[in-house]
Each structure stands twice: as structure tokens, then as C-alpha cells.
Amino acid sequence: MASIQTLSPGPAPSTEAVERLAAKYDLRLPRYTSYPTAPHFHPGVTARTYGDWLAALPAGTKTSLYLHIAYCAEMCWFCGCHTKITKRYDPIADYLDALLAEVDLVADRLTAPLDVTHVHFGGGTPTILKGEDFARVLDTLRARFGLSDTAEVAVEMDPRTATLDYVKTMAKAGVTRASIGVQDFEPQVQAAVNRIQPIELVEQVIAWLRDNGISEINMDLIYGLPHQTTESVLKTVDRAVAMRPARVSLFGYAHVPWMKKHMRLIPEDTLPGASERWSQYLAATRRFRELGYTAIGLDHFAAPDDEMALALAKGTLHRNFQGYTTDTAPALIGLGASGIGYLPQGYVANEGEITAYKRLIREGSLTTKRGIALDDDDIVRRAIIERIMCDMAVDLDQVAHDHGLPESSFAAELSAMEPFEQDGIVTVEGSLIRVTDMGRPLSRAVCAVFDKYLKAGEQRHSRAV
């Protein structure tokens, strides 16, 4: 079995090569934040199923919590999240009551105390909560789940809604990491996606966070937005790095107006084409590396001393619904409307429609709408896909061995790598597959070879690049 080593950046690909591969692999594929992926969850996994799975968690199981705050003050037209727009606080307060009641319902199903090591507030806009309500949520979590003293508490932030008092409340409540939504610094791009936030505002919020002891700063950027060019994306990268974030995500905009009607407000003729998107991605990736950041998987970058870069070097990096993570907990409890979680037995997804979610809570029921139980084949394929997404490499025979399978169990999939190898997307050495620097943006296409659920030609996923 070959040794997996991180590849150093290769030479910049030619324009011709980029255009050829962009045209050939302009596919729609899952993001592989889980396997099986969410479109294959089904209603056969019920609230009763979830309750049984919770009750079976052994004492001391390392566990993460995800809380979905499903409201925003206004809609960003690029947004693919489950969220609802409101200018009033009453609906938010009512939703928060339901979420805290769900915390009790879940905690009551447990038969032994857990070891909660990570808490993540997502949305929507988590900081749309009043400061005292945000603190109340964390107090409730500590009372019902017993957070570890060293638990990471991360919050996704919209800098447009941040105040110094709110940041102080976050720090006092125990927040250790903030993820700042930036997307792009160019005014024309911001206007085109209804997300106006001057760079000075972002700088101020980051200064407040650091001044109050929240020093772990993540930043979210997006390429493939309307009016973006490779040059403008590089300018945004340079401005972002100047603020010294510990981690940066660089997501490709997923234009799915058939799923998210507000995306119809973005004229399609303002969006970059496949080859330009690829150029933006490759150029930004190279710039992050030139500026000293470690490339993490498909679309994340970390300072070399950050835990995520260290996890990559150790081979312990993981991927979940929030993207790349150092979280190794085998259980994640998703709370709130559309919250998704996983337990050793499988995945569960909450009701996403807020009114229906609140009705179920009032009835005293867990809000599980769908999910999927894992079989042995799912587990080993998940391991393969996760290693490709995290390490850009996988030794198929090693994974088979680790799961009690004979070598060459994935001989058919290994043979299917041949066209990828011919196109310079992967290299193959025995049972070891390595994704090349050129192939990094197509790692999802490599993973799709191992996806037994994916049907050719499906259009419900985002573009591969």
C-alpha cells in the first residue's frame, strides 16, 4: 500500500487546458458534506427512529451540536440556506422558544450524559437573536447537555448586524470562534447580490472580536458571483488575507433558481461561465498558497499553525454539514428547523418548514422528517469519499483493509479512474488515487465514482466547479 503525501502546487494550468476541462466536466454534483447525500434521505427514518438512536448513545459519547437560527433581516440573492426574512422580533422569539423546547425533547431521549465538544450556530443569521437570548441558548445547552469546559463554540456572523455590545455578550457567553460572511468586497458584486457591506465594516467587527478575546476568525468568500472576474476575486483574496483570518472558505456560487426563487433576481448573463469560474478558483487557490495559507480539501484555506492545517498534516481532517472540520465526534445533533445531524446509525433531518416544525414541537414530538440508516457499504464508501474530499488522496486497499474487506474490493471504481488520469485530474499508483492540483476543483467528480446512489444526469445538485 502506497504512502499518502500532500502534493505541492504544480505549475499554473494553461488557459487551453482550463477551458477544455471546464467544458468536459461542467457537471452538477453533490458537495459531499455527507454520504449518502441529503437528496437520498427518506421519510422511513422517523421521529421514533431518531429517539431510539439518541437513547442508544453510550455515556460519554463525544458529540457536537448544530443550532439553525432560521431568520434573516433581509435576503441575500446568492443564499442557498433555509431561512425566512423578518423585520420583527416576535417571530424570532417564538421560533427560539420552539428551538429550546426541542433541546429539552432531545435531551430527554438520552439515557446517559454526553461529552459535547463543539457547538455551531448557523443560519439564517444567528446574530439576529437579541444578546440576552443568545446567552440564554448557551446557558440551556450547558444545563441540558453538559458542554465540555474546552468546547469550541462557533457562530456564523453577518457583520451588518453586529454591534460592540453584542460581541461582548458573545465573548461572555463563551464563544471561541466567529465565521464572518464576506463573499466579495467589490461594490458592484455586492449590489448585484443584495449584500452591501463596506470593507471598513468588516474590519471593525473583526477588531471588536479580537479585542474581546474571540481570536479564532473564519471568513467566507464566494467565487462565480455576478460581475466577478479573476482579477476582482484576487483583489478580494488580498483584502481578506490582510485581516489575518485563521481560516477562509472559498465556495463556488451555486445558481439553482429552480430551488431558490430569489436567485431569479440575478440575471444569468451577469454570471461567469464555466471556464471563467475555473480560472477564478485556480487563481484564488494559488494566491492563498502564495500568501502562506495551507489549502484544505476542495475550498478551505488555513493559516499554517491553525488546528485545521495541523489536522490535514496528521490525516485527521473531517468533513460534515458545515464543511471541513477538526471535529472528530461520532455524533452531531442538529437542532432547529431544517437542522441535520448524524449518529452512528445514520443521518436525520428536521422538518424545514417553520410552522410545521413549531407544531411538532408543541405536540411534544421530535421533528425528524427524513433520514437514512447506514449499511456497511455506506460506511466504507463514506470513508473513501471523505478521504478524497479531505486529503485529495485515498488508498482504496487500505480503506478496504480497515473495514475488514479484501483488497481490490473497489477494482471497478479504480478502473473508472482511467479517463480522469488521462485528463490529468488524478494520478494512480497501485490502489492509491491522488487528485492533482489541476484536478482539485473536480474532486467531487472523483468522489461521484464511488457514489452508488447518484444517477447520471441529475440536475438537483450544484455545478462541479
Task: Jot down its keywords.
2 domains; 3-stranded antiparallel β-sheet; 465 residues; TIM Barrel; 9-stranded mixed β-sheet; 21 strands; alpha/beta; Arc Repressor Mutant, subunit A; globular
End-to-end Cα distance: 31 Å
Q: What's the total helix number?
A: 16
Instruction: Tell me, briefly, the overall form.
Output: globular
CATH C-level of the largest domain: Alpha Beta
User: How many strands, which pairing sense, and closed or not: the largest β-sheet?
Assistant: 9 strands, mixed
Low-confidence stretches: 5-9
Radius of gyration equals 22 Å
The CATH architecture category of the largest domain equals Alpha-Beta Barrel
Strands of the widest sheet, in order across it, are 10-11-9-8-7-6-5-2-14
Portion of residues in helices? 25-40%
Strand runs, count: 21
Describe how the helices and strands are arranged.
Elements lengths: L14 H10 L3 E2 L17 H9 L6 E8 L1 E2 L11 E2 L4 H20 L5 E9 L7 H15 L1 E11 L6 H10 L3 E7 L3 H6 L6 H13 L4 E8 L6 H12 L5 E6 L21 H17 L3 E3 L3 E3 L4 H8 L3 E3 L2 E3 L5 E5 L4 E4 L2 E5 L3 H9 L5 E6 L2 H16 L1 E3 H7 L8 H5 L2 H5 L3 E4 L2 E4 L7 H6 L13 E2 L2
Parallel strand pairs: 2-5, 2-14, 3-4, 5-6, 6-7, 7-8, 8-9
Antiparallel strand pairs: 1-21, 9-11, 10-11, 12-13, 15-16, 16-17, 18-20, 19-20
Helix pairs in contact: 1-9, 3-4, 3-11, 4-5, 8-9
